[in-house]
Each structure stands twice: as C-alpha cells, then as structure tokens.
Design a protein that fits this description.
This protein is α/β, with parallel strands linked by helices. 39% of the residues lie in helices and 19% in strands. It contains 18 helices and 16 strands. Strands 9-10-8-11-7-12-13-14 form an eight-stranded mixed β-sheet, sandwiched between helices. A six-stranded mixed β-sheet has the order 1-2-3-4-5-6, sandwiched between helices. A two-stranded antiparallel ribbon has the order 15-16. The two termini are 41 Å apart. It binds adenosine-5'-diphosphate and magnesium ion (MG).
Length: 469
C-alpha cells in the first residue's frame, strides 16, 4: 500500500485521501471508530478517534484511547500550527494528537500537561513505519491498553446504560460545527516590560503585520520617546531635522489636549507592510513634556477616550511602551484592555517581572477609580530566545515553568526565537539617488518564508485564541 502526497491538493483532500482512506485503515480503524468536524467549547478539530467496543469502560479511562487528528493544507508549514495544536491537546485532555499536511506527519503525546513529540516522518514514507505507528496509536494497541488499565482499577462497568452517558452525543464533544462569532470588538493591547531590548517594538510591529496579513484592521500607537516603532513602521524617513514632519502631529498632541486633535487627524498610513496599517508616531519631545503632564490627571485618560471614537475603524490597537515605569507606560496600561509582556526569560528580565506586576496592580487601582476594567494580562511572551538545541531542551522549559510557578503569570505557548532576519528587516535601507535612506519592513515583507515570519504568524493565531476569537 503506497501513498503519494501529491494526491492531496488542499486540506479537504488531506482529510479524505490521506487520513480517512489511507492512514486510519492502516491503523486498524473503520469509519465507525471516528468522528469528523468535532467541536468542543471554542475548539474545532478535524477527527476524533474513539475505538468502538469500549462501551463498558468508564469515560475517564476510555479517554486514554482518544486520538485527535488535525489536517492542514499541503502548502502550510506544520510549525506554524504547533503552538495552537499543543493547546488543543491540553484543553481536550486527550492522550494523543496527530497533525499532518500529507507532506509531513507528526504524533504528539500529552501527559500531565506536558506534550512530547513522539513520531515524525514524511507522508510518503509512512508505510515504512506502519509498525511503529500501530504500536502507539493502532486501534488494537489502544484498546488493549485501556482494557488493561480498566482491569487494574477494577472498573469495568457492567451496566451499559450507565456508560452510555459518556458517548459522543451526550458528552460535551459535539459533532456539529457552530458558526463563529463574527461580531468583533476593537481590542486595545499594550506591549510592555520595564526593561529595554527585550523585543517590545519588534513584537508590536510584526504581530500587527501578521494580524493585518490575516485581514485585521490595525492601529499602532508609539508611546516611547525613543520612537523606535515610529521608525520601524517607516514614518521617520527624514535624514535631517528639517524634514522632521512628526514634530507637529504625534502622540503627545493626543495626550495634551482633550478637545483638539483626534486619532483620525494624527494617525498616518504606514509603508512597512503591504497591508493597511495605521500608526500614531512618537517624538523625542515626549521626554520634555512629561514633567508638565505628570500633574495633569486628565492626561492619563485622554488617549482612552479618543480611542473610543474610532472603535468601529480598527480590530486591534497595539500600544508600544517605553522601557520604564514612567507616565507614558502608565497611560499605555490605563488605555489598554490587554497586556502582552515580552521577555527574553533571562534572570535579569525575570526579576523585572516583579516590578511589572506591582506597577500593574497600582495602575489597576487607578483604572478602577476612573471606572475602567482592570487590564487583562494575556501573558509573558518568550522573546529573543536562543536557538541553541541544548538550551531549548534543558534550560528553556525550566525558565518557562518559572514564569508560571514563581511569578504566577500566564505564558504564551509560542516562542519568538532570536533570528537575524528580524533585525535585518528593521535595518533595511534603499538608495534614492546617492542618498541611503531607511526603508524598514515587516518580517512578512522582508522574508515571508522565514522561521521568524512563521513564529509571528503562530503568535497571531495564539493571540486571537486567547482573545476568544
Ligand atoms: N527575536 C529577535 N531576534 C533577533 N533580534 C531581535 C529580536 N527581537 C528584537 N531584536 C533586536 O533587539 C533589539 C531590541 O529589540 P526591540 O524590539 O527594540 O526591544 P525593546 O522595544 O523591548 O527595547 C533590536 O535591535 C532588535 O532588532
Ligand atoms: Mg522599543
């Protein structure tokens, strides 16, 4: 029996020609042993395998034999989908998960919240590994295992009716697809850490580009007087001060006055991504203005009120922040609904997380006084992570765990690794005559097929999921 990946030209064909007609029969399953298009809470996945003939075994034990399978388009890289897939496995609490685009196929195992890659091979070679696959997720193997567990626990349920309540229709797995909620509200997301150089600006710029790429309408607000984001989105192309057209219309104007200047007047179209992204620039003058603004309580809420006027124009607003605990960082957190905290997870940055936490708590009190909801911390985003294999195997998991255990903060599943392409995209220049001027690009414009682009795409998907979209 042979399979050729080129038989599958789209995701549907991966489902039918590879999974249903080839893989599952090879593993001993018949059509009665699986369900397609299964939905659980807000998760939808392609296949759920439940071997028939386990009726008398309680659901808790039987679930050890459940396998989910996700099919992807043959042209899509599996790497992009792995963080989301891992979260599915954790949420569904099934033991095994298979993900494939027919070109490649991987098997993951979920055990006590840890997820391991067990097998991986090219689709065209799978028949060479039949035995291996069968030994792990073959129907017979799984049924025997589950029966053994049930026996050892003495929990074979005699009454069929009782166990029926755990069958597919009555359990919370539903076999129908529900329409997604299309009505979307503008989400304001601050990207903040009080330490510099952890990847805040890189995250704002490329995460925004990834979402725009997926069809979202985006506004970026730069609240850092260093104006790195303003530069990175291509709004600071001037080479000397005379061309500085940002001075007269930037974020400070929004903050300084309640009546004058609206978001619409100050926002500009950016050039760093081919999708439409607007941005509100920062300016070095923010530094000088801070002293006077600190005493003006109203300056803290103006940006938030002005954003409410454009709530139908954007899906996401990203606010980039200064690496400090100053007024502008405060304004960002007052204005935002959600927070992402990039961190390189190095001990020094992690110590800083304590400051971030107490800063947020303090500002949440202010928010409450203003009648706003507290900020929702979406998580720490591992950023600028070394690609070293040993580090990834031994150190990274410990550092990730410590964010949850020691700092009690949520964590993104996606890691943003240290990649030269990200820095190069930012430093890109063009020549106009003999003048070399900056022409920064998003990673998607600079190198769409890079690993960095795939990581930001995965991050965008994870963000949407965290936001319940
Ligand atoms: N994942 C990454 N890989 C490689 N270089 C990165 C990465 N993230 C950021 N950098 C580089 O590190 C420097 C600091 O990043 P930046 O995003 O400006 O951090 P922050 O805004 O927190 O100060 C920049 O030169 C940027 O190009
Ligand atoms: Mg920055």
């Amino acid at each position: 029996m042979k399979f050729l990946p080129r038989w599958c030209r789209n995701e549907k064909e991966v489902e039918s020609k590879f999974i249903a007609q080839f893989l599952l029969p090879m593993l001993g399953y018949s059509y009665q042993d699986w369900y397609q298009e299964v939905r659980y809470k807000n998760i939808r996945f392609d296949f759920l395998l439940i071997p028939m003939g386990l009726n008398k075994i309680p659901f808790k034990i039987k679930r050890n034999a459940y396998v989910i399978i996700e099919a992807k388009h043959p042209k899509e890289k599996l790497d992009v989908h792995i963080p989301k897939f891992r979260r599915y496995l954790k949420t569904l609490k099934v033991r095994y998960g298979v993900i494939t685009n027919a070109q490649e196929i991987r098997l993951y195992k979920c055990q006590k919240n840890h997820i391991y890659l067990l097998l991986q091979c090219e689709g065209k070679n799978i028949y060479q590994y039949v035995v291996k696959w069968n030994n792990i997720i073959g129907k017979e193997t799984l049924m025997n295992q589950v029966k053994m567990i049930a026996k050892s626990k003495g929990s074979i349920v005699k009454d069929d009716k009782l166990s029926n309540k755990y069958t597919i229709n009555q359990s919370s797995f539903q076999t129908s697809i529900q329409p997604l909620n299309k009505q979307q509200q503008m989400k304001v997301i601050a990207v903040y850490h009080n330490k510099g150089g952890v990847g805040k600006t890189t995250t704002v710029v490329n995460l925004a580009a990834a979402l725009a790429h997926q069809g979202a309408r985006i506004l970026i607000i730069d609240l850092d007087s260093q104006a790195n984001t303003t530069f990175a989105v291509g709004l600071a192309k001037f080479t000397d001060e005379i061309d500085d057209d940002l001075k007269d219309s930037n974020v400070i104007h929004l903050i300084k006055s309640s009546k004058k200047y609206s978001i619409k007047e100050v926002a500009r179209k950016t050039s760093y991504s081919k999708d439409n992204i607007d941005a509100i620039p920062a300016h070095i003058n923010l530094m000088n203005e801070e002293r006077t603004l600190v005493d003006v309580a109203a300056s803290r809420t103006r940006l938030k009120y002005k954003l409410a006027e454009v709530k139908d124009d954007y899906d996401y607003v990203f606010i980039d922040t200064p690496p400090s605990l100053n007024l502008y960082a405060k304004i960002a957190i007052i204005t935002a609904d959600y927070l992402v905290i990039p961190s390189d997870l190095k001990p020094f940055a992690n110590e800083g997380l304590k400051n971030v936490k107490s800063f947020i708590e303090e500002i949440n009190d202010d928010k409450e006084a203003f009648g706003f909801k507290p900020i929702n911390v979406l998580g720490v985003l591992p950023s600028k992570i070394s690609g070293n294999a040993k580090f990834n195997q031994y150190t990274l998991p410990k550092r990730r765990d410590s964010i949850i255990d020691r700092y009690n903060l949520p964590l993104f599943e996606t890691n943003i690794y240290e990649r030269d392409d990200l820095a190069k995209a930012f430093d890109k220049t063009i020549f106009v005559g003999d003048l070399e001027i900056p022409d920064p690009k998003s990673i998607f414009e600079f190198k769409a097929d890079s690993m960095a682009a795939a990581e930001f795409e995965a991050l965008a998907l994870e963000l949407k999921e965290k936001l319940g979209e």
